[in-house]
Amino acid sequence: MAILAKFLKTAAVAATALGLAAGAAQAEKKDLTLAYVEWSDTVVATNIVKTVLEEAGYKVKLVPLSGAAMWQAVATGEADAMVAGWLPATHEAYNAKLKDKVVNLGPNLSGAKIGWAVPTYVDIASIEDINKDPAKFGGKVIGIDPGAGLMKASENAIKEYDLKVKLVEGSDATMVAALKDAYTKKEPIVITTWTPHWMFAEWDLKYLADPKNVFGGEETVNTIVSTKLKEEAPEAYKILDNFSLSLDDEQKVMVENNKPGADPAATAKAWVAANKATVDAWMK
């Protein structure tokens, strides 16, 4: 009887352990939220990550936000991750405020930069040259969404160079539309911009020199995740930790996304299908 009792007790313990293990496996989070800003490069990277996570069995929701709200969403856990953390300069303020509430998995893209650009037919080479004839540019610099790190840097540039121009708020789309219109008419225009961006493949543009280094040097785009993700969804964490793109790959997909009728989700799936070895490496 004693042997039977001991056997039953051991079986009960084993069953409990198995039950706990099963419960832990069942508890793994499978619904994920990715925050992003509707910039051309971020749309590409976010949709590619979404496609890969879905292939790994996750259900992924994309939520477009402003830059500040994107960081805040990951910090509060409302979003699980984002792949658009521009560091060290562009998102410096967001990172300084929230770095202890998120996990930075490191760069997913290198060689990024921000600044101002003009079409190559415009005969200026430096930001300070704008003051020679601000009226030629309508007294304005065409910007993107208010609150973006690029916009804050642009405001600083106007002060540092004592420019007699106004920074016009808008979005990636409105900035590109203004550039397209000016380029078609061969009119002078100054735009806020960044690399990677498909418009450098579409039009002949040049960055304006920044002798005061207001916009900083080369940057990286980083993957930022919630502090709970590694515990809640370890496989997703692994994929996000391994995720990286080259400038060339990202810009090629951006060009595809800019074609009439293009669907960013579809172009992302096509890229994933065509780059199986790269994707497999992210999932190992």
Automatic annotation (TrEMBL):
**UniProt keyword terms in alphabetical order:** Cell membrane, Membrane, Signal, Transport
Q: What is its main location?
A: membrane
Cellular compartment(s) = Cell membrane
**Domain ABC-type glycine betaine transport system substrate-binding residue range list:** 30-273
Q: Which ranges does the record mark as transmembrane?
A: none
Name the source's superkingdom.
Answer: Bacteria
Q: InterPro entries given for it?
A: ABC_Gly_betaine_transp_sub-bd (IPR007210)
Q: Which GO terms describe its biological process?
A: choline transport; glycine betaine transport
Q: Does the keyword Nucleotide-binding apply?
A: no
* GO-annotated molecular function: amine transmembrane transporter activity; carnitine transmembrane transporter activity
Keyword Cell membrane part of the UniProt annotation = yes
Signal peptide range: 1-27
GO cellular component, as recorded: ATP-binding cassette (ABC) transporter complex
> What name does UniProt use for this protein?
Glycine betaine/proline transport system substrate-binding protein
Natural source organism: Ancylobacter aquaticus
